[in-house]
Amino acid sequence: MHKVIVLAGVLVTTALPASAQNFTTAAEVRPILNATQGNWVAVREYDGQDLLYFTHLLAWRCGLDAIHFSVNGGVEQKFDAEPCYEGEATPNALKVTDMLPYQRFDLQSVDTVDVRIVYDDGEESAAGFNRGQIQIQ
Predict the structure, then answer these.
(1) In 3-state terms, what secondary structure has residue 90?
(2) Is the dihedral of CA 76, 82, 87, 89 positive or negative?
(3) pLDDT tens digits, residue range 25-43?
(4) Are the C-beta atoms of 76 and 69 separated by less than 8 Å?
(5) What's the whole-model pTM score?
(6) What UniProt keywords are attached to this protein's entry (predicted)?
(7) I want to staple 53 with a disulfide (CB 3.0 to 4.6 A). Which of 3, 42, 71, 83 is the partner?
(8) How far apart are CA 20 and CA 22, in angstroms?
(9) Topology adopted by domain 22-136
(10) C-alpha 54: how far from its chain's center?
(11) Domain residue spans of the chain
């Protein structure tokens, strides 16, 4: 990236340091996910089903090793996310080609959701939600 400066009518271009982060490590994504914990998952009724979305977590997945969840206190499952696109300009971009950002459940069957994320440094964070907290229209 370059910065354009005009000094006394002379156009000067200087290179700026690359200060933008790619958000691909636990250290970079942990503060964001801690601050936005209420957005980790969402449930929506669509086409006669409950769709449990992981879109927010997927947007920061490059700093994660795993996303685990359980519905209504059931057995914990691992959510398989599309890979981090290291080496690309937007490594956290969702391409949604063959991996959807949600899981399907019977209509109105999702009452509670527990989520546990594992960062790439081995640390974990967890949160529990009831349907009213995460339901979208």
Answers:
(1) coil
(2) negative
(3) 999 999 999 999 999 999 9
(4) yes
(5) 0.81
(6) Signal
(7) 42
(8) 7
(9) Immunoglobulin-like (2.60.40)
(10) 7
(11) 22-136
